[in-house]
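Notes from the 1:1 (GR / supervisor)

We went over the backlog. Supervisor wanted to see one worked example end to end before approving the batch request, so GR pasted a single chain during the call. The sequence is below; no edits were made to it. Supervisor asked that the structure be written out right there so they could see what the output format looks like.
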Amino acid sequence: MVKVFLASWALLLGMLLLMIGNGLQGTLLGVRGEIEGFTTFELSLVTSAYFVGFLGGSRLTPEAIRRVGHVRVFAALASFISAALILYPAMTYSWAWILLRVIIGFSFSGVYVTAESWLNNAASNETRGKTLSLYMIVQMAGIVIAQQLLNVADPAGYILFVIPSVLVSLSFAPILLSIVPTPAFGTTKNMSLRELYTISPTSFVGMILLGGVFSAQFGMSAVYASQIGMSVREISSFVSAIFVGALVLQYPIGWLSDRMDRRVLILAVSVAGALGCAIGWFGGSNIYALLLSAFIIGGMSNPLYSLLIAYANDYLDADDMAAASGGLLFVNGLGAIAGPVLTGWMMTTIGASAFWLFLAVLMVSIAAYAGYRMTQRPSAYADEDDYDAVPYTNLGIGVTQVAVEAAQELYVEAAEDMADKDEDAPN
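Structure output shown during the call:
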């Protein structure tokens, strides 16, 4: 792991600064929006706008990279991000923030595609798994650090908008000055959504619902915390707890995933996430109950992302894995766009505590559908010993197709090794 870090530290440092910048502005807008008097529904539209832009960027950026190259695309999108971050406090209108968030989402998506391409290109077949794990750790660490920066200045001022702009600008230096050569960018074959649903209904439906969970966590948690009267320090701790849970519980759940029926684990993790939401609902304004609830829902929802992709892979040929991952990312993005809007509507209608109700309904729905599908199709692995050979790859919130395809490469290699062992085994 140390050798992998030394070989990729410049790229990882750049990604860390990117995640700090993005994580800070995501939470800051929820707090500042409350100060500016935005309604809950307006803030939900601001949140959704990011995912509209992100989904669009993930579809369009690869073509731009193929046409003009990584460096030009990277530099152009970096300029958009820096400009948009500075304009937030200067244009405190909901329509302006919605537009800026679309630009920010589109640009960050493109920047992630570019940076992840470089990182994947820097890794060898032997180090790709460790590199991907380090990348996910850096990603979560950046978001957690970002929440603590919320305490260094007044959210009603200008400084907290300058900090992410500076951090994002600085992040480009280690990436662009890296000695790693510019990577090639290939084209992934497409898979229709109908085909994807037919192959794995559990993963398809689960990814749509999970997109709503992710976007509500990322964009509406700070809005909820502000509405129930948390201080800025408490808000930063509350949002941090979501991502600390994701970081801490990812690996234990991944270990279990390789040793049991994944649908059982998907159901169990979803139910645990719903119970975590119940703690938040009944905890009221008790900060310790809310921190525990945030830790649980973050620790359950993030591994679900990887679980659903891994479960779909159980029914795919190696040649179809990359195309399927692209489809799953797309439907996850659709859920992410709708999530904040529905959350905002429920919080306006029912009250701030509807934040937990929305998350709980989605987690229960995932569990219920996984349970239903268990009655419709047997497990992909009848023999419990087979689970030891099925790899679970750690993937985090906000990764692009590049990172997911890198994870799929690991799965394909493992599947091919498994097939070779079966051929060599005595009959």
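Supervisor's comment: Confidence is low (pLDDT under 50) at residues 382-389.
Batch request approved.
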